[in-house]
Amino acid sequence: DPIEAAKRKAAFRAVEDHFRSDMTFVGIGSGSTIVYGVEAIKEHLRKNPPPPNHMNWFVPTGWNSRKVIEEAGLLPLGFDSIPGDSMLEVAFDGADEVDEELNCIKGGGACLFQEKLVACRSKKFICIADYRKNQKRLLTNWKSIPIEVAPIAHASVLRELRILGSTDPKLREHSLAKTGPIQTDQSFYIIDAPFKQLYTSLDVKNGKDGSGKDGHWSVEALAKRIKEINGVLEVGLFYG
Ligand code: DER
Fold it and tell me: Predicted ipTM?
């Protein structure tokens, strides 16, 4: 399968370029691509064993991410167990779409809250994304922004998103498994909010207005504006 091969190639390249056996804290994202990333890390550690008595800890970004770490025989470390002021040397993760400035849409797997926690506690964030994810601007192929919200606030967040210009924001429901909204690892809900294509900072430098007046926002302006909405826990836009 050419897509699986592309994901695997990207993952092995990312690990080859950015993982070292003497690292102590490494973030592991969520989704299907990161599974190849963990396979590549396991392979790297087999070929380049860590220094004697050195522990490699892998910080998961949710239930599935922890399962991938454990099934690979690696040691998971809860985000809330990272000691003191330690930073993770690197975090590897996937994305749903990436623009020319490496801004990402994340949250396809409903893990965006812990993904952003771990990414922001890491010195380096490596996003592993096959060719399908690369677009000139965000919201080209992937049509909506995943947003994690407190259940009690979901209706008022939907209303605020419509005011910001989202055409038809919706609660993410289970397809088959269960009626009603999905719940995240934090027992929150996910809203998928469609917007028009997001301008990059270069677009704004070249005179495009990214304040949503013409229906288009810039990545950063929209991310900040959504994050301010009462009841929003996290927005699936990674930038800067
Ligand atoms: O939810 C996320 O942000 C994930 O990283 C995810 O959407 C990427 O999934 P994939 O690797 O299966 O495309």
Answer: 0.97
State the distance from the centre of ligand 1 to the C-alpha of 111, rounded, in angstroms.
9
**Of the candidates 168, 110, 105, the residue with the CA atom closest to the CA atom of residue 137:** 105
Query: Does residue 108 line the site of ligand 1, with CB under 6 A?
Result: yes
108: CA distance to ligand 1 center in Å?
6
3-state secondary structure the chain: CHHHHHHHHHHHHHHHHHCCCCCCEEEECCCCHHHHHHHHHHHHHHHCCCCCCCCCEEEECCHHHHHHHHHCCCEECCHHHCCCCCCECEEEECCCEECCCCCEECCCCCCHHHHHHHHHCECCEEECCCHHHECCCECCCCCEEEEEECHHHHHHHHHHHHHCCCCCCEECECCCCCCCECCCCCCCEEEEEECCCEECHHHHHCCCCCECCCCCEEHHHHHHHHHCCCCEEEECEECC
Question: Locate tokens 């690292």: which residue?
Answer: 23
Residue whose structure tokens are 């993770």: 88
Report whether residue 166 contacts ligand 1, using a CB cutoff of 6 Å.
no
Q: Check: pTM over 0.90? Answer yes or no.
A: yes
Instruction: Report pLDDT digits (tens) over 41-53.
Output: 999 999 999 999 9
Candidate of 28, 30, 138, 142 to mutate for ligand 1, largest count of ligand atoms within 8 Å of Cβ: 30
